[in-house]
Specification:
single chain; 2 domains; two-stranded parallel ribbon; Na+/H+ antiporter like fold; two-stranded antiparallel ribbon; about 450 residues; 17 helices; mainly alpha
C-alpha cells in the first residue's frame, strides 16, 4: 500500500479534461454576453427610455387556458433558466457517473468546499440581519456562484494557472448549483399541486426512458420536456427543477457504437444555447435597476443588502478555504504540487460572483419586495469579489509564468514541447505552448 499522501486538486479524469476545455471555451464567450446583457439592462433602466424597459418586462404572452400567460420577465426567469438548469443536470449526471464526483476521494473536496461556501455566507447574512430592519428571508441569496462570470474572469487573468485548479472551480460550481436547486425546491415552494407534480414526474420518466433507448427525435422529446416543465410550473414547484430532473435522466455512459455518451453530447450541444442566449437574456430582464443617490443610500443602509455583500465577498471565500483546509487537515491530504493556498483563496473569491442564481433566489425570497436593494447588492458584491479574485489570480498567474520561463530549457522542435509539458506536470498545470509550437501543431 502506498504511503504517499492524497493530493488535493490532482490529475483530472479524461472526461473532466474534455469538459474543462469545452466549458472554458463556451463559458468565456457566455460570460462576455452575460456582461453585455447586464450592462444593457442597467443602461436601459437608467435612460430616458426606462418606461419601455418596464413595459417590455411586463408584456404578457402565452396560453391563458394552460395558465402560461406570463410576462416576459417570468418567461426569462422560469423558462430560459430551465435551459440553464437542464445543462446543470447534464453536468451533474456526467460528473456523478464518470467525472470527478464518482469517487469519494475526488468528490470530497469540492463537495465539502461547496457546502462551506454556502453555509458561511448564509450564517453571516443571518447575523447581519438580526439588527432592526433586517430580514432573514434572503439567507440563500449569497450562497450561489455564477460560473459564466467566474470563468470569464478566470480566462482573462489565469492563462498559466494549473488546470486542476480550474477544474476545482468548475466542479465546486456544479455542486453549488445542485445545492442551490435543493434550496429552491425545499425552501421556496409553498403550496404544491400533487396531481400536476405527478404529471410532471411521469413526463420526466418517459423522457428518461426514451433517452435510455436512444430514441432522440427532437419532435418527440421536446414536447415531452415542455410538458414536464409546464406541469412543474403549475404544481407550485419552481419550473427550473424540471430542467435539472430532465438532465439527470440522460445516460452518461456510452452505448455500443457511440463516440460520446448522450449526456456529454447534449451538454456540448446545449451549453452554447444556455451560456450564449438563455442566461444573457435572463440578465437583460433581471439586472435592470434604477441607480440614484437615494437608491444607493437606501441599499447601503439596508441590512439585506449588507448581508448579501458580506455573504458573497467575505462568507464565500472564507467558507470555501476553511472547508478545504479542514479536509486537508483531517484527511492528511496535501495540495497538489505547484498549487498553493493563495491559489485556492483567489479561486474562492471568484466563487463569490453570485449574480444569475443569486438574482433568481432574491426574487423568490422577497417576491417583488426590496428588489432594488437586492439587485444592487448582488451586482456590487459580484463586482467586488471578481475584482479581488482577479487581482489575486493575476498575481499567482505571473508567478506560474515566471516559474515556467525560469526553468524552461531553450531547445528546439519536439524536445521543447516535451520540456514544457514536463514542467507543467511538475508544477501541477498545463503550460501553454510557445506560439511557434502552436503553429507547428496546427499543421
Amino acid at each position: 500500500m502506498s504511503n504517499q499522501p492524497t493530493r488535493l486538486f490532482s490529475r483530472l479524469t479524461p472526461s473532466t479534461e474534455r469538459t474543462l476545455a469545452d466549458v472554458l471555451r463556451t463559458e468565456r464567450a457566455g460570460g462576455i454576453l452575460l456582461l453585455i446583457g447586464t450592462v444593457a439592462a442597467l443602461i436601459w433602466a437608467n435612460s430616458a427610455w426606462s418606461d419601455s424597459y418596464e413595459a417590455m418586462k411586463s408584456f404578457t404572452i402565452g396560453p391563458e387556458a394552460l395558465h402560461l400567460d406570463l410576462d416576459l420577465a417570468h418567461w426569462a426567469k422560469d423558462g430560459l433558466l430551465a435551459i440553464f438548469f437542464f445543462v446543470v443536470g447534464l453536468e451533474l449526471k456526467r460528473e456523478i457517473v464518470v467525472g470527478e464526483l464518482r469517487k469519494p476521494s475526488t468528490a470530497i473536496v469540492p463537495i465539502v468546499a461547496a457546502v462551506g461556501g454556502m453555509a458561511m455566507p448564509a450564517i453571516l447574512y443571518t447575523l447581519v440581519n438580526l439588527q432592526d430592519g433586517g430580514s432573514t428571508a434572503g439567507w440563500a441569496i449569497p450562497t450561489a456562484t455564477d460560473i459564466a462570470f467566474a470563468v470569464a474572469v478566470l480566462s482573462v487573468v489565469g492563462k498559466w494557472l494549473p488546470n486542476a485548479l480550474r477544474a476545482f472551480l468548475l466542479t465546486l460550481a456544479v455542486v453549488d448549483d445542485l445545492l442551490a436547486i435543493i434550496i429552491i425546491a425545499v425552501f421556496f415552494t409553498d403550496d404544491i399541486n400533487f396531481v400536476m407534480l405527478a404529471a410532471s414526474v411521469a413526463c420526466i420518466l418517459v423522457f428518461g426512458f426514451l433517452a435510455s433507448k436512444r430514441i432522440t427525435y427532437w419532435w418527440l422529446l421536446f414536447p415531452i420536456a415542455f410538458a414536464s416543465w409546464a406541469f412543474m410550473h403549475a404544481s407550485g414547484v419552481h419550473a427550473t427543477i424540471a430542467g435539472v430532473a430532465l438532465g439527470l435522466m440522460v445516460p452518461a455512459i456510452k452505448a455500443k457504437g457511440e463516440k460520446h455518451a448522450l449526456a456529454e453530447h447534449w451538454e456540448h450541444k446545449w451549453r452554447p444555447i444556455s451560456a450564449g442566449f438563455a442566461v444573457p437574456v435572463f440578465a437583460l430582464f433581471a439586472a435592470g435597476v434604477t441607480i440614484s443617490s437615494e437608491a444607493v443610500s437606501a441599499a447601503i443602509a439596508d441590512p439585506v443588502a449588507q448581508g448579501v455583500v458580506v455573504g458573497l465577498v467575505i462568507g464565500k471565500p472564507l467558507g470555501i478555504v476553511l472547508a478545504t483546509w479542514l479536509v486537508a487537515t483531517f484527511t492528511k491530504a496535501q495540495l497538489d504540487r505547484g498549487i498553493s493556498w493563495p491559489d485556492v483563496l483567489g479561486m474562492a473569491f471568484l466563487a463569490g460572483i453570485g449574480f444569475t442564481v443569486s438574482l433568481l433566489i432574491g426574487d423568490l425570497a422577497f417576491n417583488g419586495e426590496r428588489v432594488e436593494e437586492v439587485k444592487m447588492s448582488v451586482l456590487a458584491a459580484s463586482l467586488l469579489a471578481a475584482f479581488i479574485g482577479a487581482l489575486m489570480l493575476f498575481w499567482r498567474d505571473r508567478s506560474y509564468r515566471k516559474m515556467y520561463e525560469s526553468r524552461s530549457i531553450p531547445v528546439v522542435g519536439h524536445d521543447r514541447m516535451g520540456d514544457a509539458h514536463a514542467l507543467a506536470r511538475e508544477i501541477g498545470g498545463e503550460a501553454a505552448p510557445a506560439p511557434e509550437d502552436s503553429e507547428r501543431e496546427s499543421h
